[in-house]
Specification:
alpha+beta, Marvel, Synaptophysin/porin
């Protein structure tokens, strides 16, 4: 098998890896739903009651209001007027939207690689465009994942024990204790897959680069010269 044939088989395999990794990236982030629970006790009634704030993608925490159990008046406080702190939708949506676009691009690229390999190899513009897109995608994976990782750190702080100090009633006549928060393991996985995608795209840039005229600019001219032009003497 020639070197050219080996390179032909690299692109589809790498495209599938990137496609699968992008699916895990946006699915683990975009499908998350969680809640924060706080134990509340009143001066007149020391029995603990639980108030809950539900949150999820796209993590507009400033719209996640606390809710008391249905039909229960907890310490004569309108808990729906109190929300979590922060809006991290820009970082989360940037990350998920980019991952979806990458998934769609991988589908189109696989169709090109598998169905129109000859057209892809014979066109300098297509190979160069693919190379540029690969470099841009690698950079954007780094940017989007870093931004999302920072936002995730802030989300963990905003939904953790620190929220007790931010609730007005808890600093006045009501005794509050942090209860629990939903595990964010899947969100941690989304960050891991973000950096994994960056590595996959960065590694694939070498294979795409070998298809461009930057790596072997003489291949095209040599192929055009195969129709009877003799090689230089002395070779």
């Amino acid at each position: 098998m020639s070197l050219l044939q080996k390179d032909t088989r690299v692109a589809p395999r790498t495209g599938r890896d990137q496609q699968i990794a992008s699916i895990f990236a946006f699915a683990t982030c975009g499908g998350f739903k969680g809640k924060t629970e706080i134990q509340v006790s009143c001066p007149k009634n020391p029995e603990n009651r639980t108030i809950t704030a539900a949150f999820g993608y796209p993590f507009r925490l400033n719209q996640a209001a606390f809710q008391a159990p249905p039909g229960v008046n907890v310490c004569d406080v309108e808990w729906r007027d109190h929300v979590l702190i922060g809006d991290y939708s820009s970082s989360a949506q940037f990350y998920v939207t980019f991952a979806v676009f990458v998934f769609l691009y991988c589908m189109a690229a696989l169709l090109l690689y598998l169905g129109y390999t000859g057209l892809y190899r014979d066109s300098r513009k297509l190979t160069m465009t693919d190379f540029v897109v690969t470099l841009v995608a690698t950079f954007l994976w780094l940017v989007s994942t870093s931004a999302w990782a920072k936002a995730l750190t802030d989300i963990k702080i905003a939904t953790g024990p620190n929220i007790v100090r931010e609730l007005g009633p808890c600093n006045q006549r009501v005794t509050c204790h942090f209860g629990s928060v939903t595990s964010m393991g899947s969100l941690n996985v989304s960050v891991i897959f973000g950096f994994l995608n960056m590595i996959l795209w960065g590694g694939n840039a070498w294979f795409v680069y070998k298809e461009t005229s930057l790596h072997s600019p003489s291949n095209t001219s040599a192929s055009h010269g195969q129709g009877g032009v003799p090689p230089p003497s002395g070779i």
